[in-house]
Amino acid sequence: MTRAEGARLFRESWIAGVREHFPGEPKPGYVTPWEETPQWEREAAGAVYEQVRRFLELSGGHASRLTREQKGRYVATCWIAQMFKHFEDPKPGYVADWTDLPDWQKETDADIFEAIEKSLN
Asked: Is the pTM of this model over 0.90?
């Protein structure tokens, strides 16, 4: 899978997770289709996809033994790094620590890791 395809997988997994886990009606920006996703966000999604893919590769397949929380934390941390890359002063919600994230976002981040993991098998 190319980085661009991985970025799209990331975004589609995010949207699916939001639709499944978000309580109520999500903000439109949370479920913006790929074609309308801003370039910075596409780049960030591609970078996080690559980080997860490489992490799985370097673990020799053993990263599958991580808990769902550990998988979600990894995605969240990689995303935070991208927010600092793309924004001089990112919104606090973009760089919130794992413990401060809402449960729906934690579940969605874990879903993203598992979608990437599944795509590599």
From this structure: yes
